[in-house]
Amino acid sequence: MFSNGHLFLNAFNIGVKNLKQDLRIIKTQENLRYALLKLLKSKPLESITIAELCRLAKINRGTFYLHYKDVHGVFKHYVEVIVEDLWRSYEEPYHKTNYKIEKIQADMIKIFHHVKEYQDFYQIVFDERVPMMYYYLLFDTIRSFMRESVDEALQRAEPGMNSDYLISYQTNAILGILIEWHRQSYKTSIQELNKQLFDILSINSPFRKND
Amino acid sequence: MFSNGHLFLNAFNIGVKNLKQDLRIIKTQENLRYALLKLLKSKPLESITIAELCRLAKINRGTFYLHYKDVHGVFKHYVEVIVEDLWRSYEEPYHKTNYKIEKIQADMIKIFHHVKEYQDFYQIVFDERVPMMYYYLLFDTIRSFMRESVDEALQRAEPGMNSDYLISYQTNAILGILIEWHRQSYKTSIQELNKQLFDILSINSPFRKND
DNA sequence: ACTTTTATTGAACATCTGTCTAATAAAAAT
DNA sequence: ATTTTTATTAGACAGATGTTCAATAAAAGT
Prior knowledge:
The structure is a homodimer.
Chain A: H1 5-11, H2 23-40, H3 50-57, H4 61-67, H5 71-88, H6 100-117, H7 119-125, H8 133-157, H9 164-183, H10 190-203
Helix pairs in contact in A: 2-3, 2-5, 5-8, 6-7, 6-10, 8-9
Chain A binds a DNA duplex through residues 22-25, 28, 49-52, 59-63, 65-66.
């Protein structure tokens, strides 16, 4: 349960943007993050208290409040790292070449692999007890990919249209697949998921104009 | 802010299923629900404590735990009532007559009106601080409508296909519009929202197979 | 190395949480 | 109307929360 894997390393690498920050701050935050990961191996996020997190991290509880508001603040950092990883996977070279349905499919397959890789975390992100915050973090990331695809396709089809609703529609549709995957305990294989996606994009929607 | 309106009355009507229940239980729960509504007029859900809720409702704090686990348990009741109202609006007569895109549009327009009517509540449901629980309640409700439409359309187009992913895809796509609406502070008029939806369903998706 | 700046600490505080008692009061059953 | 059942209560408990304080320690700046 809850394999930290390389993410653990990542967690100690985010200093990039905090590079010119006080070493004590970095140490405190790292200790808290690492302690959270440890606790997550044995209990759900919602049952972890600030007090026990600080005890394990050997951080004064008062110090905690200098950095975070609650335990979610600490976990949020991990989600941000993961979502940045998803971000990075989109800046790969072959991405800029082909468009249309193959591109969309390739993009979605990337998302599936990404979620599978960080399954332990996404199990928490989609947990009904956690705040919507994490969902929106993921939503915003996928939405920014979707904007490119949609805006471009729209430029040719329906220029001048406000695309905000369309983009959110498409983005959340994809997240709907991830929700379904989550609810089926990630039992569906990525191959099967791809097939499902292909079928969905093919019949495209039962609301197709000339259905 | 937070007009209770007729929902307040509804909250005291759910005794239908609790009809043969101890009067004291009903009274306790009603008092707590009413107190929550009062508090919500002045502060966000996440900042309401069990202690102050019980003080206002004149209910012993120990009694609270005999009925609910946390404040969300009380609010959940309201969301269930609201979602049941959405449910009811789907069992209207003209619903069974026409199908296809007009039906879908008619259905979605119903959802838009419903959300606008209970805007104060949906502002909380989509708040990033509240648990996913409420989102899933709404998701499941809309999903059950969607199942009908999709399964039927699928029966003709692609019989034998597992429709779970498709239904969740379509359901969450609609919720994507509601999320966008929420993020734009419900400023978009229902007419404009309908137009957006129509455009989306028309170009249907930038992933259309022969785009 | 020395000084300055600032993050961390321990301690205390009122309040909240979750759970448990025995006593009471209010329903339901007869 | 009386008995039985059961929900509510007050009180207490250990632990958690969120905030504040002066004292300390550890960085950064020189």
